[in-house]
Every structure is written in C-alpha cells, then in structure tokens.
Amino acid sequence: MINIKSIAIKNKNKKQLFNSQLLLVFIIILICIIATLVNKKFLSLNNIINIFQQIAVLGIVSSGVGMLLVAGEIDISVGNQVSLLGVILAMVIQKVLGLPDGKNIIPGLAPFAIPLAVIITILSGAFLGFLNGIFVIKTKAPSFIITLGFSLVYSGIALLLTNGASYMLFGHFETLGRGKLFNFIPISIFFFLLAIITAFIILKYTKYGRFLYAVGGNREAAYVSGIKTQKIILIAYVIVGILSSIAALILISRVGSALANTGDSYSLDALAAVIVGGIALSGGRGNAISIFLGVILIGLINNSLIIMNVNPFARGLVIGLVMIIAVTSNYLSNK
Amino acid sequence: MNQKKILENIKINKSYPGVQALLDVDFDLEYGEVHALVGQNGAGKSTLIEINAGSIKPDSGTIIFENKSFKYFDPDQSIEFGIQTVHQENKLVEELSVAENIYLYDLPHKFGFINYSDIIKNTIDLLNSLNITSISPNSKIKDLSFTEKKLISIAKACSRNAKILILDEPTASLDAKGKNILFEIIHNYIKLGHSVIYISHQLEEIFEICNRVTVLKDGKKIATHMIKDIKMEDIIHEMIGQFSITLYNRKQNKLPKKENDIVEVIDYHREGVVNHISFTVAKGEIFGIAGLVGSGRTELARLIFGLDKKDSGKLIYCGEDITPISPNDAIKKGVGFLTEDRKSNGLILIRPIFENISLVQLAKNLDIFLNLSKEKSETNKISSELSIKTPSNYQIVKNLSGGNQQKVVLAKWLFADSRILIIDEPTVGIDIGSKSEIYKLIDELTISGKIIIIISSDNPELVSMCDRIGVMKNGQLIKILEGNDIKEENILFYSMGTIKEKGVD
Q: Cα distance from A22 to chain B (closest Cα, Å)?
C-alpha cells in the first residue's frame, strides 16, 4: 500500500537535488545584485570574463574532485599535486631550454621543450593520481588519511625540487594562461568549460559514470552486481591527477613561474566548491551542474569581495561560512 | 503467588506494525531451574526475552519478579534485579583484558584510579568459582578462542550478582569441550538457587540440560512441559502446529529432465564454514537449502558466486566448467545472486529504479556509452512485467516497499539474463501480497528454464516452492529431502535434531 505520506516523501526526494541547485542559482543572482549595487563595474563584460578566468583553474580541479566525491572518495592532495606538477613543468622547460644561462642538458632538444614539458607534466599527473588511488584501494584505509599523507609527500618533493626558490619561465609558455581567443576570450576559460562538459558527459552518458554513482551509493551492492569497484576508484584518481596536471599547465603559464606552493590552496577550495555545489560527501549523489554552480559561487564570492573593497583577509571567513550554511541546509532538508 | 517462582509473565502482548509478536503469552521461571524457550524463527522468543531483560516494553501484561508486579522493566531495573542476558554474538571489548572486560561497568577504584590488583583478584576468584581455570585474567580478549570468549561473556554476566541468566543460543559454534564446560557452569549456577532461560535451536541440548521447556509459535505460547515427560518429536510437532500451511501451489512440477540440462555443484569447501558440499539441480527445478542461521547456507552461496575465497569447488553447467572466481566472472557466466539483505548489498537505495535494474547488465557488456532511451524502454518493460508498483522508474529505490524492492533485485538479475539464480531469503520482510507475487515470478522463471536455488529460514516457503530440499547443519549438507519427505518436520528434525555431529573445526 502506498499512503499519502510516502508519496509526499517521494516527491521531496525526487526534487531535492533540483531544489538545491535552484537555491544555488538564487544565491548566485543575489550576490550579483548586491555586488552590482556596490560597484557598477561588477556586471561589466570585462569583469564577467575576468571572473571566469579566475575560476578556470579551480573549475578544472573541482571537476575531478567532484567525480571522485560521487564515487564516495575524497582527494585533499589536489592542490599539492598542482603545485608539484607546476614545479615539474617549469623545471623541465628551464632545463631543456637551458634557462637562464644557456646551458641546456641535451643540445638539440630545445625546440621540443614545450611539448616535452607538457607531456611529462600530464604523465606525472596521471602517476600522482595512480599513487593516491592504488594506496586507497589496496590499504582500504580512509581516502582522507591516504591523500592527507600524500599531500605532505607531494609538497615535500616540490620544496626539495625548488629549494624554496621559484622556477621562472622567462616569458616562455605564456599562451595557455594568458592567451585570448579573438583577443577577447581567455583560452583558459575553454579548458574550464571543457572539463565541466567532460564531467557532465562522463557522469550522465557513460557506463563508467553510472558505475561511479553505484560505487558511491553502495559499494558492496555494486561489487555484488559485478562492478569492479576497485578499478573504478583507481581510474577516478587517475582522472583527478590528469586534471591537476592541466590545471598546473594553465596556472603556471598565467603566473609565469612556479613556487613549491603555487597551487596548494586548491585542495580545500575545490572541496569547498563541490560541497557548496551539493555533492554529498557520502557519495552516490550530485552531477556536473552541481560542480559548475559550486565553482561559480566560490569565484563570485572571491571576486565580489575584491570589487566591493572588502578586506581580502575576510575571504576565508566568508567561504567557510558559506560552506557551513550549505551543509547545514542540506542536513536540515534531509531530516 | 507461588514462592517457587522467581519470575512470572502474565498475558504479555507486543505488536509491531503488521505483526503480533506476542499474544497473551504466559511464562514462568522457578528458582533453580533451566527453562528452555523454543520455536521457529519469528515465534517470539527474542521479543519475550528482551521484555524480561528490560530492552522492550510490552503493550500490555504483567511481569512479576519475586512477588512484586511490574508493567515493564527498564534496563537499569532488570540489571538491579540481577537479570543478565548473554547474547549470541559477544559484546566484549577486544582490546581490553579479561579482567577489565568483566568489571567494565563497575571498575573498583581508589582516588579515581583503577585498582588493578583488586580486579585481577576478583576475576581469579570468579573464574575459579565457575571452574574456568585455563584463562588468565590478564589476557586480551582478542587473543582468546571463540569458546573462551563465550565463557568470559557468561562469567561477566555472573559477576553482576545475576539471579537469572538468559542464554541466547549459547552453544552456537561452540566445540564439544566448550559445551561441556558451559553445561558444568550452568549446573553449578542453578545449584545456588539461580535460574536460567535457555534459548536454543539444538533440541538435543535441551534434553541434556533443561528442566522444563516452553514452546512458542507465531507469538503464541503452545505449551510448557517437564522435559522428562516429553519426546523431541512432540516438541517439533508443537513448533510446526497441526496444519502445515501451503504458501503457494506451483503451476507445474518438474520439466522432463534431459541428461545434460543440469548444473552440478561439486565439492565446495571452505575450512570451518562449508564442508565439502555437492549437489545437482536440473533445469526447471527449484532446489531449496534449509538450515539454521549459521549453518553455512549463505556462506555456501557466497562461495558459489565467487564472493568469498574457497578451498575447493567447481560449478558445472551442462557439462561446461563455469566456476566463478569473482562476482564479475559470475555474472558473465550467467550466475545471479540475490542476497539476503537487499538493503546492505542488493540495491543502490539512493539511485533510481532503472539504474538499479540495468546495473548487472551494464557490468556484463563492454560498451562505453549508455543508450539511455533503450535503457529506459527496456527497464520500463521489465518493471511492468514484474509489476513493480511505482509512479515512474526514475523513483529512487529507497522509497519503495520491501516487496517492490525485492522485485527490483529480481528484475536486475533477469535483465542481465542470468541462467542460474541463487535466491537467499526471497521474501524476508515482505508483506503477504508481494510474497505470493514473488513466488509466482520464481515459478514462472522455472518454467522458462532457469535453474533456481532458494535459501530460506522460512520452512513453509521451502516446502511450498521446492522440488528438493537440502538441509544444512554445521557447514554440512546432511540430507536431501525429495518427494513425500518434503515436510517441515523433516527439515526441523534434520537441522535441529539428534543427528550425530562430526567435528567441524
């Protein structure tokens, strides 16, 4: 027998994700209105493009973290991955080009410096993800602990490689981070949108994406259903690593040099973005639109604080509060 | 009031939504007796002991303890009165020592610090008084054997001045030596004038240790007997009742058997769990596996499906070796497994119906992209064939009733075109209406040529559905019932009765 109460619960559950996304859109519009009232420049096309450029790197990292969260796993080493991969990228470019003093390691390799550095960076990214993943699935320890450990390892390696100094690019490899299409739209925005669209397609239209939801929703049931759950999780970590490497390419290209901690803040920002976007830490829920809206919200908060002349030190405070409010409201609406 | 009685229950009633767990049950316990409580699953034994232990409040009725009457006990009260329950699974803290565990609730202390020499001394005295001499009070629980842990659980219960011990299946998985020590402890304990409520499915033990026995069935008390006045067969008859119920009438019995159309389960073994089990099932046949919880039924199914590691075992389908080595391998070879707990490992509760239905089929094929429109129409088709009641297949499974959830699990395995289906507890937690629908579905599957193995604790269900029933006990397949031998009392006789056990350890 289906009674009226259970129908009401059903409708509530069905619309829950949709509602929380609608709420996010509402909050985003609200922030836009307030920021515009304070400073009219906020809604200018330039500023909007500016916002998107600012969140491009965050968006790419968050796409990976979001998919991982759907599978019920977490990676808090992404920021350190970005930092380390940035150092590797800049280091390879310097060594191969023989910067700054002209002593290149292998003469004749210089023309291939950029493609070589890019390939090495992406492969390294895949490897870092693989390391995280293999330890998570083999030890069966909480992924929070494993990736916390690896975040220190990656950060340590980056410090050792740089010795605390920065690797300058001296004007090389600038297009990706600073280039603009038609002299107008920054190239990095395309990579951001590409990452989100890829996540959207994977989660919605591929078998792999479906398995991510199954693994995150009930791992044991997924395994009994014949899904190779460990393989699914391992691949998700590798995807996160590859997206970290692409984020590193864009970030270092834009900044023009690599420090051992250039990308560290993305660990928590990416997590904040996907959680604010409505992807549950418990797994099995959420989609690429959640990731997109979460990233936009974090970007907007950052930008509007600057444009409204708020003390920049208040940024962490505001993002932290937004995150707590998001999680609390999710909890209350689930009750 | 009778001075001989320490505890008396009068007209106890307890109902849960849809179930009358206890109906006007009377029960009494005398000083210095061991009183057995027997009945099939769902007879109401657990509810009755939990009411006396104070963890459940009865809807109505009176509890009389030492001539004082109560509406109910709360947990503190029952501890104060000296009523202690030893559960089937141990509730000891593995990382602490024997002495610490025994006195965990009342650690002797001086100035806020634990007085270790006192608790060690008390523990030694306690263990000596119970004649448990082989266990050191300083050993950690995790270093003890299963039997030793059980003895410590009992010692712990005795330590709190217990006047009534409630033992729930105390001999389950206990070896012969442990059983003897346990019985000795019980003998010494009742000599002090204390009493024991003894719950066991092992009827032969009841004849060894108990003074009286009370039989429950479907929440009602059938009778109380002096053990010396009754035979085991009579107890079994009382547990079953006079009329055996037919839950479902199969449309047709066995298809004409062809030589090759069988699946052979050959020599499945896992040390200490499943003991060299072999049987065959023909196409169009339903093979039942009966036995008590813990007899190795589910474990056998998990071995066959490749979920757990086995020491030996082969699965032959029509002459071809299809032994699965993992669930993924099993589904590719057409073996399906409907687990007994659909919520914990049968369904992705927070995902929609259609995703759950197509999951196994997706895990089986090699596609990269989903065909959403085809998936939608095909899952809609199977969902209406099985008449899953839902406004749409986008509904998340959590919101469905138990019966409809079970149909989703069935749909999932049928959608993947499984040839062999192992169904563990097909109708547990399902209302009567859905039950008969599920029986009908299973019956139709048999007619369409699927090979079906049903594992169940519901004996009337096995009797109504199965062509043959294998009875398991202590990891062994001790009897295969066929034809006219398929009766509830035979199942009970073989799974609970006095068949000489071989050591499983």
A: 20
What is the fold, at CATH topology level, of the domain defined by B5-240? Rossmann fold (3.40.50)
Domains of chain A by range and CATH? 48-334 (1.10.3470)
CA distance B324 to B315: 8
Domain edges within chain B: 5-240, 262-350+399-496
- Cβ separation B351–A213 shorter than 8 A: yes
Q: Is the Cβ pair B327, A226 closer than 8 Å? A: yes
Q: Please give the class, per CATH, of domain B262-350+399-496.
A: alpha beta
Closest Cα in chain B, distance from residue A293 (Å): 22
Residues of B in contact with A13 (CB under 8 A): 396, 398-399
Centre a 10 Å sphere on the Cβ of residue B157 and count the other Cβ atoms it contains. Answer: 21
Residues in chain B: 505
Q: How far apart are CA B135 and CA A306, in angstroms?
A: 70
What residues contact residue B170 under an 8 Å CB cut-off, 6+ apart?
B86, B150, B154, B182, B198, B200
B130-188 pLDDT, tens per residue? 888 888 999 999 998 888 888 899 989 888 888 999 999 888 777 778 888 889 889 98
Q: How would you classify the pairing of strands B5-16 and B195-199?
A: unpaired
- Cβ contact A176:A97 at 8 Å: no
Taking an 8 Å cut-off on Cβ atoms, the answer to whether B368 and A224 are in contact is no
What are the two backbone dihedrals, phi and then psi, of residue B179, each rounded to the nearest 5 degrees?
-65, -45
Same-fold call for B5-240 versus B262-350+399-496: yes
Q: Does B432 touch chain A (CB under 8 A)?
A: no
Determine the Cα–Cα distance for residues B430 and B216; give it in Å rounded to an integer.
22
Reduced to 3 states, what is the DSSP secondary structure of residue A335?
coil
Residue type, B255: L
Which of A1, A9, A218 minimises the CB distance to B399?
A9
- Determine the Cα–Cα distance for residues B287 and A226; give it in Å rounded to an integer: 24
Model confidence pLDDT, tens digit, residues B356-412: 999 999 999 989 999 999 999 999 999 999 999 888 999 999 988 888 999 999 999
Distance of alpha carbon B210 from alpha carbon B168, whole angstroms: 14
CA distance B68 to B7: 9
State which amino acid sits at residue A202: I
Sort strands B83-86 and B476-482 into parallel, antiparallel or unpaired.
Answer: unpaired
Residue found by looking up tokens 């600012």 in the block: A54
**Structure ipTM:** 0.88
Contact residues, chain A, for B305 at CB < 8 Å = 224
pLDDT value at A70 more than 70? yes
**Where does the pLDDT of residue A18 fall: very low under 50, low under 70, confident under 90, or very high at 90 and above?**
low
Rounded Cα distance between B26 and B34, Å, is 17
**Residues of chain B with C-beta less than 8 angstroms from the C-beta of A214:** 348, 351, 355, 359
Structure tokens given for B394:
């986008």
Which backbone phi and psi does B24 adopt, to 5 degrees?
45, 50
**Could you check whether the bond before residue A100 is cis, i.e. omega within 30 degrees of 0?**
yes
State how far the Cα of A239 lies from the Cα of B374, in Å rounded to an integer.
29
pLDDT for res A15: 53
* Residue in A5, A225, A229 to test binding to B, most B beta-carbons within 10 Å: A225
Measure A218 CA to nearest chain B CA, in Å: 5
Q: Does B366 touch chain A (CB under 8 A)?
A: no
Report how far residue A82's alpha carbon sits from residue A268's, in angstroms, rounded to the nearest whole number. Answer: 13
CB B198 within 8 A of CB B170: yes
Taking the Cβ of residue A72 and every Cβ of chain B, the question of whether any pair is shorter than 8 Å is answered with no
Q: Which residues pair with B27 in a beta bridge?
A: B9
- Nearest-Cα residue of chain B relative to residue A282: B350
Q: Which two tokens stand for residue B330?
A: 């099993």
Q: Provide, as residue numbers in chain B, all residues whose Cβ is less than 8 Å from the Cβ of A227.
A: 328, 359, 363
Reading the block at residue B399, the tokens are: 């919101």
Token pair listed for B320: 């071809």
